[in-house]
Design goal:
heterodimer, A: 415 residues, mainly alpha, MetI-like fold, 18 helices, 2% strand, B: 274 residues, 2 domains, 13 helices, globular
């Protein structure tokens, strides 16, 4: 009886999780797998020969057919103007050659479903390469005769398509990853992203902690503090970035003028036009947007600490600072861990804020890894290389998570 | 006992904090009413406009910004409805039912929420291009990737709070698990469902990267992408930009004021366990 109800229970559970599992599979797991696959190919959307993932070489048989047709018609035209028998013999020889190749294509390369691009093995690849070489050399021989040819240029232009028809494999193994490791732009973007993440999260944690402690003490006005704190967190990052880009702009930005007046920067225009200025501008905007969120997370943790613990420790004669060190911090550790982890991962994949605020400029000095990967994929359409960059980023994110878990010694999933 | 001095310091710090948080909004709002001539140069640094104007708002409404707001609203609503539904099924099973691979499922959901989003964008873009789904409301489907983990974790904590006795008594009365779920559990977990719906809505409303890559056409752009396009390459109409940021902040403001309790619970329920 008990067994049956257990089976029913797990059956029900499987039905209930099914929709979520399907979505996770379709939009997370499979795309991640695909990205991994892309990274092993020289996959470029705007380059016809590389716009797919070709483990094997391919042959564009439709293009061959078309080329052969044009070569024949040009040969007909030349035949009418040439005078020597020798030349005519050569033209016939080329025709016979083409007939032979047509037969080969029909027997060995054409697929039953008449696909225009078909996969070819090494042997066939060698043969179609030979076809290309033979046609080219016999055409060169033909045009070496002294005759009043009429379409030499067109002939060679068309014949060069035979080369385009051969699509070699773009499987590149670990090459993309090797290039990522030596790409100076990857180095500089990873460096920038780490600096940005470290400084932003550090300030957010310090200010957030101070704010949480104050909010925990404040008796009046908690409601308004909460409402106001939520607004920076809740507005779209793109909107926040635009607001700050107005405050920072060199000619009419109030913040850039304020900083110039305080002598923090030499000129108001320096804020977004110098690399250090931009770095700090981005950090300030990020700290403004996420410190309230950090404070709310920590405040929630503070409120779970029983008041009696403070009372008993103050009876033991502990000062406020000692209380913070011996009661607050240890009990707040899980909250600090979660807040730090969430924020670090978020900051490391920063995209919207920089995309809208500086666009990676000036001169690419504020490019985060995400921005660089986006540019590689969508501006240069190099999906293979872009995927390798993203995977290196994902690996770094994994390492950061692992480091946090080890450093703070916390269990990620409570049972 | 708090002394009067420390409470005064606390009040000062709080007021300063509120000012810093609110300042950018206040400044941008004031600027949006300044005429073009007062936005540039020294007069831009004045608090109030000498001749307040609505011209930027009028100009803005002639662009497609309202259409983009409508797109954002439609896309966020569709995503919220279906994600909340499938997340509540899934979280109920995780919180209450015994089944194999439960830990694996939880670990996978957690891991997907930590992965950089950029990793799925390339393959999803290519699939969408192949299917002809770019520039359409199909974009709501991949939005599950960013919202499902958050919704699931919020709901797991809420389902776990529903007293087991309620469920058991219904079960003894002969109701099936599915029936119990709809009749007893769902109504009791309503606050949690509402919280996860709000968080999903905000998450989609604010999303930028997927929208930028999948729905680049003006007709299907969401508000976040549309507003980023106001910042052109060579010329920036700050008047319109500031007016647009004001318009886009209003929905957020309404949501925050109406649902702040749910949002706070949503932010913290994943972070504070037990």
């Amino acid at each position: 009886m008990k067994n049956i109800s257990k089976i029913v229970e797990s059956k029900t559970a499987y039905i209930l999780i099914l929709p979520a599992v399907v979505f996770i599979l379709l939009f997370s797991i499979i795309p991640i797998g695909e990205s991994l696959r892309y990274a092993f190919f020289d996959f470029q959307l705007n380059d016809q020969a590389k716009s797919g993932l070709y483990i094997n070489a391919n042959y564009n048989i439709a293009l061959y057919d078309e080329t052969a047709f044009y070569i024949r018609s040009f040969l007909d035209m030349e035949e009418e103007v040439v005078t020597k028998d020798e030349t005519k013999l050569q033209i016939d020889a080329i025709r016979n050659m083409l007939d032979e190749y047509d037969q080969y294509m029909l027997n060995n390369i054409s697929s039953p479903d008449m696909a225009s691009v078909v996969s070819v093995n090494n042997e066939k690849l060698a043969y179609v390469t030979k076809i290309r070489d033979n046609i080219m050399s016999s055409l060169e021989k033909l045009y070496s005769f002294d005759e009043p040819f009429v379409c030499e240029e067109d002939m060679f232009a068309v014949a060069s398509e035979l080369d385009t028809a051969i699509i070699s494999s773009n499987f590149s193994g670990l090459n993309n990853f090797k290039s990522v490791l030596t790409d100076t732009r990857v180095h500089s973007t990873v460096g920038f992203t780490l600096i940005f993440t470290f400084i932003s999260v550090f300030f957010e944690l310090c200010f957030g902690m101070a704010l949480a402690l104050i909010m925990n003490k404040a008796l009046k006005g908690r409601g308004i503090i909460r409402t106001v704190s939520l607004i920076p967190w809740a507005i779209p990052t793109a909107v926040a970035a635009l607001i700050w880009s107005y405050l920072y702009n060199g000619s009419s930005g109030i913040i850039s003028h304020l900083f110039a007046w305080l002598k923090i920067i030499p000129e108001p225009t320096e804020l977004l036009l110098s690399s250090t200025g931009s770095l700090w501008a981005i950090i300030l905007a990020d700290v403004w947007k996420t410190t309230p969120y950090m404070a709310l997370l920590l405040l929630a943790g503070l409120q779970t600490i029983p008041h009696s613990l403070y009372e008993s420790s103050s009876l033991d004669g502990a000062t406020k600072l000692q209380q913070f060190g011996s009661v607050t911090l240890p009990l707040l550790k899980p909250s600090i861990f979660v807040a730090l982890l969430f924020r670090t991962l978020d900051a490391f994949r920063v995209f919207d804020l920089i995309y809208v605020l500086t666009g990676g400029g000036p001169g690419g000095t504020t490019e985060s890894v995400s921005i660089y990967a986006y540019k590689v994929m969508f501006a240069q359409t190099r999906f293979g290389y872009g995927s390798a960059v993203v995977l290196v980023m994902a690996l770094t994110v994994g390492l950061i998570t692992f480091a946090y878990i080890k450093l703070l010694n916390v269990k990620l999933i409570n049972d | 006992m708090q002394t009067a001095k420390t409470s005064k310091t606390i009040m000062t710090v709080i007021i300063l904090y509120l000012l810093i948080i609110a300042f950018p909004f206040i400044w941008v709002t004031l600027t949006s009413f300044k005429p073009e001539s007062e936005i540039w140069g020294q007069s831009a640094l004045k608090l109030f406009a000498d001749q307040p104007t609505m011209e930027h708002y009028e100009a803005l409404f002639k662009t497609t910004i309202l259409n983009s707001l409508k797109n954002s609203f439609i896309i966020a609503s569709i995503t919220t409805i279906y994600v909340t539904l499938i997340a509540s099924f899934c979280s109920y099973a995780i919180a209450r039912l015994k089944f194999k691979f439960k830990k694996v499922l939880v670990a996978v959901i957690l891991a997907t929420s930590m992965f950089p989003q950029m990793i799925v964008v390339g393959p999803i873009y290519r699939t969408f291009v192949k299917l002809g789904w770019t520039n359409s409301f199909y974009i709501t489907l991949p939005y599950s990737m960013i919202t499902l983990p958050v919704a699931t974790f919020i709901l797991i904590t809420h389902f776990a709070k529903v007293p087991v006795e309620m469920e058991e008594s219904a079960y003894i009365d002969g109701a099936s698990k599915i029936r119990t779920f709809f009749r007893i559990i769902l109504p009791l977990a309503m606050p949690g469902i509402f919280t996860s719906a709000i968080m999903t809505f905000i998450g989609v409303w604010n999303e930028f990267l997927l929208s930028l890559t999948l729905n680049s056409d003006e007709k299907f752009r969401t508000a976040t992408v549309a507003i980023s396009f106001l910042r052109g390459q060579f010329q920036i109409f700050w008047g319109q930009v500031t007016a647009a940021t004001v318009i886009l902040t209003i929905p957020t403001l309404i949501i925050v004021i109406l649902f702040q309790k749910q949002i706070i619970s949503g932010i913290t329920s994943g972070a504070v366990k037990e």
